[in-house]
Design goal:
Radius of gyration of chain A: 21 Å
Number of helices of chain B: 15
Largest sheet of chain A: none
Shape of chain A: globular
GO molecular function, one term (chain A): metal ion binding
Helix content of chain B: over 70%
Distance between the termini of chain A: 67 Å
Number of domains of chain B: 1
Largest sheet of chain B: none
Strand content of chain A: under 5%
Pfam families (chain A): FixO
CATH class of the largest domain in chain A: Mainly Alpha
CATH architecture of the largest domain in chain A: Orthogonal Bundle
CATH topology of the largest domain in chain A: Cytochrome Bc1 Complex, Chain D, domain 2
Number of strands of chain B: 0
CATH superfamily of chain B: Cytochrome c oxidase-like, subunit I domain
Oligomer: heterodimer
Helix content of chain A: 40-55%
Strand content of chain B: under 5%
Keywords (chain A): Heme, Iron, Membrane, Metal-binding, Transmembrane, Transmembrane helix
Protein name (chain A): Cytochrome c domain-containing protein
CATH class of chain B: Mainly Alpha
Organism (chain A): Mesobacillus subterraneus
Structural class of chain A: mainly alpha
CATH superfamily of the largest domain in chain A: Cytochrome c-like domain
Chain lengths: ~180, ~450
């Protein structure tokens, strides 16, 4: 092999394909990530809806570079009260995905539960007015229409009532366990 | 239209690379500054998200990748004892590649992004970049094909593998979203690229560079051919499985998580094999790093590579990940390979190769020293700020400190990062100026020589 570049390339290709098979092809057959949860269905926005357009604006303005949408079953997330742990099926229609990798700002997976429209609008136009000392940039350059759509999208980021109730119950149980 | 001059493509790729390191790092510094002054240059084009994405894409695919191609256009023919298959095609691919990068840059500023990290250019740019990469790979494969040296030195293995893996990996990561059945599936495909752009391109070409440079710079033979083979095949086998650890503790089935975490830890084997080989080769030559700046850059690069590879598997442990994931730590870690390890080896490659091409040593030794010290000290300030920040931030989240308060806590570290980053940035002007001077003076000297010869003849 030390004299045959084609042999090196062949083996290199085969090893690469093993990796693709294991980490890219096999998951295609996994039910958990490929069928939508009820909360995932809520993110199947009709084309041209305000939410769908808002999602585009979210992407175009790079919100995903500072915000994840990705709640883990870990103290870092539960103690920040981020809401129900996210499941693969929540992202069935989330394309391109907005999982993110960096929390310069908080996770937004279920941020629709936290505030009302007015707060979001005010915060987007002047983040420091609602959150003194915030390093989120102002998005006052967006048009009124764009802001409306973006806020509609943010407000839509919620779990179903059942999922939320379940989550609240679990938390209460945990809290009472901790108290004892 | 495109020149056929010997080594011209190598030289021209290097020149373009260094122009892009200045542009790419200015985007990085602006990102850092925006975390201090959020409304600095904030508008539809240069809002934070656009600048951050442009920074990542430019330093990886413009600066580092062009420096790599420049190195390979010199090292591959040298190792194969032949000339480049086509210098003309090499120069053409350079112009094409740069046009595509410019398109990608403007697309990102325009808010067109495919979101996939390390693959953020939109699809219409991705396709063109793929073509450009394939043209480069074709030229270099053909060069190996016409070799007169039958034995393939280990650097060639790494270069061949990387030139095959990059385009394939690029396709997986940039696969059009509408053809992918779910968001998490796309996440896995995206991180396949995100991790392997690092593992099967950046690392492997970089390691190939070091294998080339060390024996040349020290004048000693490679410590062990055997060990270099073990290292190569172990990297090729295990790196490619690492993507899923980026979604660890997240919405992926646990079996995928394990398929990603275990190889991340096994990777310590090739890293050890590679580094043992480098440092074995260095035995008795360490004193030379006092005066030999390219060698010093190479060795500093290997040390940063070691740190990066110790951090990597550590971070892949679920318990460690649960503290530092999503924090500033990750940003610090993400700079270790691309800047600390492989930008350093690329600097060494430029300082070694450019004088051979233009036929004169680097114009200023002092500028090389300044380049080294500003880069190294700047990077250490930058990286330690981010690592400390990440740990503090991670534990603050766990303690349930309100998020906004954690943002305020980060202020001094974010400032430290910007100060370190400024030094890293300033360093590159020493490189650019030195390169410019070297090429210019070499040209003048050649002209004078020709004149002199004409007179004496």
């Amino acid at each position: 092999m030390e004299r045959k570049p084609s042999a090196v390339l062949m083996v290199a290709l085969i090893l690469w394909m093993f990796g693709v098979a294991g980490t890219v092809i096999l998951p295609l057959f996994d039910q958990e990530i490929n069928s939508a949860t009820a909360s995932g269905e809520l993110r199947n926005y009709p084309e041209d809806s305000a939410e769908a357009k808002g999602r585009e604006i979210y992407i175009q303005n790079g919100c995903q570079t500072c915000h994840t949408q990705f709640v883990r079953a870990l103290p870092a997330d539960t103690n920040q009260n981020l809401g129900p742990v996210s499941q693969g099926g929540d992202y069935k229609y989330d394309l391109p995905h907005l999982l993110g990798s960096n929390r310069t700002g908080p996770d937004l997976m279920w941020v629709g539960l936290k505030y009302n429209e007015d707060w979001h609008r005010q915060h987007l136009i002047d983040p420091q007015s609602t959150s003194p000392g915030s390093i989120m940039p102002s998005f006052d350059y967006l048009t009124n229409k764009e802001l409306d759509d973006l806020v509609a999208y943010l407000m839509s980021l919620k779990p179903t009532e059942e999922r939320l109730a379940e989550y609240k119950k679990e938390r209460e149980e945990q809290n009472s366990m901790n108290d004892k | 239209m495109f020149t056929d001059e010997k080594w011209s493509s190598s030289k021209n790729w290097f020149i373009a690379a260094v122009i892009w390191i200045i542009i790419g790092m200015s985007m990085g510094l602006l990102t850092a500054a925006k975390q201090i002054w959020p409304d600095l240059l904030n508008n539809r084009w240069t809002t934070y998200g656009h600048i951050r994405s442009a920074h990542v894409m430019l330093v990886i695919y413009a600066w580092l990748s062009m420096a790599y191609v420049g190195s390979m256009f010199y090292m591959i023919p040298k190792l194969a004892k032949t000339k480049i298959y086509s210098e003309k095609l090499g120069n053409f691919s350079l112009v094409f590649y740069n046009i595509v990068i410019l398109e990608g840059f403007f697309a990102l500023l325009d808010g067109q992004t495919s979101v996939i990290e390390y693959g953020e250019f939109p699809l219409w740019v991705d396709v063109q970049l793929l073509i450009a990469i394939v043209i480069v790979a074709y030229n270099l494969f053909k060069t190996v094909g016409q070799r007169t040296e039958k034995m393939l030195y280990v650097s060639l293995w790494y270069f061949l593998g990387s030139l095959l893996w990059l385009p394939l990996t690029w396709i997986v990561g940039n696969f059009p979203a509408q053809w992918i059945p779910s968001g998490v599936q796309q996440g896995l495909m995206g991180w396949f690229l995100g991790h392997n752009a690092i593992g099967l391109w950046m690392t492997t070409v970089g390691v190939g560079q070091i294998y080339y440079l060390l024996p040349k710079l020290t004048g000693r033979p490679l410590y062990s051919h055997q060990l270099s083979m073990i290292g190569f095949w172990a990297i090729a086998t295990f790196y490619v499985w690492n993507g899923p650890h980026h979604l660890m503790n997240g919405p992926i089935p646990s079996w995928i998580s394990k398929a990603g975490v275990i190889p991340s830890i096994v990777l310590l084997i090739p890293v050890w094999a590679v580094l043992a080989n480098f440092w074995g080769t260095m035995k008795g030559s360490w004193a030379q790093t006092r005066t030999n700046v390219p060698l010093r850059f190479t060795m500093a690069g290997t040390i940063f590579y070691l740190f990066a590879c110790l951090q990597g598997p550590l971070q892949a442990l679920p318990s460690v990940s649960s503290v530092i994931k999503f924090t500033h730590w990750t940003v610090g870690h993400a700079h270790m390979g691309p800047f600390g390890a492989f930008s350093f080896t690329s600097f060494a490659a430029i300082y070694y190769i450019l004088p051979k091409i233009v036929g004169r040593e680097m114009f200023s030794k002092k500028a090389m020293e300044a380049h080294f010290w500003f880069s190294t000290v700047g990077f250490l300030v930058f990286a330690f700020s981010l690592w400390i920040a990440g740990v503090v931030q991670g534990f603050a989240w766990i303690e349930g400190v309100p998020f906004l308060q954690t943002v305020l806590m980060m202020e001094p570290y974010v400032q430290g990062r910007a100060i370190g980053g400024t030094m890293m940035y300033v360093a590159q002007f020493f490189l650019a100026w030195n390169m410019y001077k070297t090429i210019k003076v070499a040209k003048q000297e050649k002209k004078q020589q020709a004149l002199h010869q004409a007179v004496t003849a």
